[in-house]
Design brief:
Elements lengths: L16 E2 L3 H36 L8 H22 L15 H32 L17 H22 L2 E2 L6
Parallel strand pairs: 1-2
Helix pairs in contact: 1-2, 2-4, 3-4
Length: 183
């Protein structure tokens, strides 16, 4: 028995074939690398915070650089991880309406969604560039690193989001599906 409230693509229709385009072959290892770097960064953040707590409560001498470094790493972990989430469809989606639409209309709306996500990624990259340029020679206290490193993940994430969104659009137009990098 079929449910009239579920679109045909949800009722056992043939799944789209995996995307095999050039952009997918380029983006897949980049997304996997981004995922590994985000997980590694998260582990480094945990180690840094542990070291800070150990220094404060056991050694009675808290290192001054740990908080700033952890904050910088959080930017890299979250922004690169979010970009990978765009490619792997790991972000929150409200698809209640989409599943009730015909395949043709659903595809058109999904393309519009990916175009809007790409525009957002472009805005992230552009504004990250502007903000990074505005802090040119300023140094991060206690680290001595240039302030611009706080904006590099914003720019990189924006560029990746644009690339991953274009990959999804091409896959939709070709009747293919982007395979998540964790597969």
């Amino acid at each position: 028995m079929t449910d009239p409230h579920v679109a045909s693509h949800e009722q056992g229709a043939v799944a789209a074939r995996p995307s095999t385009g050039l952009l997918s072959r380029i983006n897949a290892p980049i997304a996997r690398l981004g995922m590994y770097l985000s997980v590694t960064g998260l582990l480094v953040i945990v180690a840094i915070v542990f070291y800070q707590v150990f220094g404060r409560y056991v050694l009675n001498s808290s290192p001054t650089w740990t908080e700033n470094l952890a904050l910088v790493l959080i930017l890299y972990v979250t922004l690169i991880g979010a970009a990978v989430g765009v490619r792997d469809a790991g972000h929150i989606g409200m698809d209640s309406l989409l599943v009730m639409l015909s395949d043709h209309v659903r595809e058109k709306i999904e393309i519009v969604i990916h175009v809007l996500v790409a525009v957002f990624g472009l805005a992230m990259a552009y504004n990250g560039w502007i903000l990074g340029a505005s802090v040119g020679t300023v140094k991060i206290p206690n680290l001595g690193l240039p302030e611009v490193i706080r904006y590099v993940p914003l720019i990189a994430s924006g560029i990746l989001i644009v690339s991953f969104s274009i990959e999804h659009i091409i896959a939709l137009l070709r009747g293919e599906e982007v395979v998540p990098s964790w597969n």
